[in-house]
Specification:
The protein has a four-stranded parallel β-sheet. The chain has helices at residues 2-5, 19-29, 52-62, 72-84, 109-117, 154-163, 173-178, and strands at 90-94, 125-129, 144-146, 166-169. Helix 4 crosses helix 6. The relative contact order is 0.17. It has 179 residues and is an alpha/beta fold. It has seven helices and four strands, in the order H-H-H-H-E-H-E-E-H-E-H. The model has no long low-confidence stretch (mean pLDDT 80).
């Protein structure tokens, strides 16, 4: 919830037990038609929630995507960090690694270390974002750092994504900010 509260113009955050409860509240309070993704219809079959295909479809139809803007103090942390590495570009990297089993979509950390070891990768600075325990992927590289270790809260790390030159990584919450 801290990440949602860090967004610009968010005055109140409410939680609902499920999508039906959310839709009932939106209907009764009259804001169902103003929500995106739309709450007055079911999401695409096969997806429990909105997916990037829904975002792509919205863009194709409207030639515009809603963007997340962070409060000034949250964005300032990322701006300061990015400025400290100029003129090199800062690439935000999200590596999911919850370790919950072989069926999960965790990042292959050894492959990322091999990538960071390549000389060409040193032309950029890579900021590893997120709350997963992947700090060892950055060890031994001057051009890779873990944003959390630099004092960044999760909302500040999301703000850093919005300030970065590019994004690489897993399809998860941080990638939504990058989109």
């Amino acid at each position: 919830l801290a990440a949602v509260r860090a967004l610009e113009r968010v005055r109140r955050v409410r939680m609902y037990s499920d999508m039906s409860a959310l839709r009932r509240a939106a209907n009764s309070e009259g804001w169902i038609g103003r929500a995106w993704p739309p709450l007055n219809r079911e999401p695409d079959p096969g997806y429990g929630t909105v997916s990037t295909t829904e975002s792509a479809r919205y863009f194709d139809q409207h030639r515009w995507l809603p963007t997340l803007r962070f409060q000034a103090d949250v964005a300032a942390w990322g701006q300061k960090l990015v400025a400290s590495y100029q003129p090199r570009p800062v690439v935000a990297v999200h590596l999911k690694a919850d370790g919950s089993g072989p069926e999960t979509s965790d990042a292959e950390l050894a492959s990322w270390r091999d990538f960071f070891r390549r000389p060409a990768s040193a032309s950029a600075v890579f900021a590893v974002v997120g709350d997963d325990d992947v700090a060892d992927v950055a060890q031994g590289f001057d051009h890779v750092f873990v944003a959390r270790d630099q004092g960044g809260s999760f909302p500040q790390q999301l703000g850093l994504i919005s300030q970065s030159t590019a994004f690489m990584g897993m399809a998860a919450g941080p990638s939504t900010v990058a989109i």
